[in-house]
Amino acid sequence: MNTRAPENNGEIKHASHDFLKSRKAIFKVFAIVTSTAAALALTACGGASPTISQAGATQSASASGSATPTPTPTPTPTAPKTASCVTENATESYPPKQFICTKSDAGVLLWMESSESKRVTDARAAAAAAAAKAAADKAASDKAAADAAAAQAAAAQAAAQAKADADAAAAKAQQDQAQARQVQPVAPPVAPSSVYYANCTAARAAGAAPIYRGQPGYRPALDRDGDGIACE
Questions:
Q1: How far apart are CA 88 and CA 99, in angstroms?
Q2: Looking at the domain assignment, is residue 171 inside a domain?
């Protein structure tokens, strides 16, 4: 008999099958011999004996019924095909792989291998960080623009206020001058006198300058601007 160990499951099954066939053949021969001996014994005793073929068939059926079929091994699962994925970041281990319940780009929870889950979550985190940075940059830009606009508006308002103040000051000065002219006393007209000053130098030398209209020595020739005051 060949005693070499089988190299794989196929050889094991083949060897088992050969062994069962050999065993069945031995049982069949033994059954035939036994039935023949029994028939001869019954014949010697005068009894009826079954035929050799009937005895062989009976033993063959008995031998066939005693054989036990080899069970088919159940395959080891390699992925969580039936496990429900309802909790994000839940894990299922199917050595050597590990699966993580991960939200896909479509927003659906799916079982993913750990490497694929990491890729998806890292990409989502990077996108969220980029969006947050873009929002922060836009907020900073909007604030800078608003601050610049506010500063420009404040400067324009200050300039307008300064101009308004200057205009008000100028108007008040003109008003004050007008009021001063209105309240300036005017000498009542007097009768012409014999006082005569050849020029303002003579009037000043006499201590008469300035000479108002109606006063002795006043004459239009000495009042160049015609405001009623000579030798100002």
A1: 11
A2: no
209 occurs within a structural domain: yes
Helix (H, G, I), strand (E, B) or coil at 211: strand
Q: Provide the token pair at 81.
A: 């095909």
User: How many whole angstroms separate alpha carbon 72 and alpha carbon 79?
Assistant: 21
Of the listed ranges 19-23, 77-81, 204-208, 209-213, the one predicted with least confidence = 19-23
Report the distance separating Cα 60 and Cα 37, nearest Å. Answer: 17
Full-prediction pTM beyond 0.70?
A: no
Q: Alpha-carbon torsion 23, 28, 30, 31, what sign?
A: positive
Would residue 77 count as lying in a domain? Answer: no
pLDDT, tens only, 152-200? 999 999 999 999 999 999 999 988 888 887 765 555 555 556 789 889 9
Residue with tokens 């659906």: 108
Cα 130 from chain centroid? 6
